[in-house]
Amino acid sequence: MANHKATKKDVRQSKKRNERNRYYGKTTRNAIRDLKAITEKAAAEKELSDVASMIDKLAKRNVIHKNKAANLKSKLAKKVSSLA
């Protein structure tokens, strides 16, 4: 266990950040799942911008890698554009 005051603080901060990152990651995954379930093109296009923004925020905070974010956005855009 940590003995120094600063190290204890760092452990607290790390735990808090980890919980926050897990929450945002899970929320984004749920939004992606919901977007994939949409069958109407107009609704999907509207939702795509919100989901893409969430993915970009995760990449900016290093929760996910920037290339993974780009791949996710690309696949979602491709799926939305293929809707009738």
From TrEMBL:
Function in brief: Binds directly to 16S ribosomal RNA.
GO cellular component, as recorded: cytosol; small ribosomal subunit
Gene that specifies this protein: rpsT
Protein family per UniProt: Belongs to the bacterial ribosomal protein bS20 family.
InterPro entries found in the cross-reference section: Ribosomal_bS20 (IPR002583), Ribosomal_bS20_sf (IPR036510)
GO biological process: translation
Gene3D superfamilies: Ribosomal protein S20
Coiled-coil regions, chain positions: 41-75
Protein name per UniProt: Small ribosomal subunit protein bS20
Superkingdom of origin: Bacteria
Keyword RNA-binding: yes
Region of interest: Disordered: 1-22
Entry-linked Pfam families: Ribosomal_S20p
UniProt GO MF annotations: small ribosomal subunit rRNA binding; structural constituent of ribosome
Leader sequence segment: none
Organism of provenance: Chitinophaga dinghuensis
Entry keyword set: Coiled coil, Ribonucleoprotein, Ribosomal protein, RNA-binding, rRNA-binding
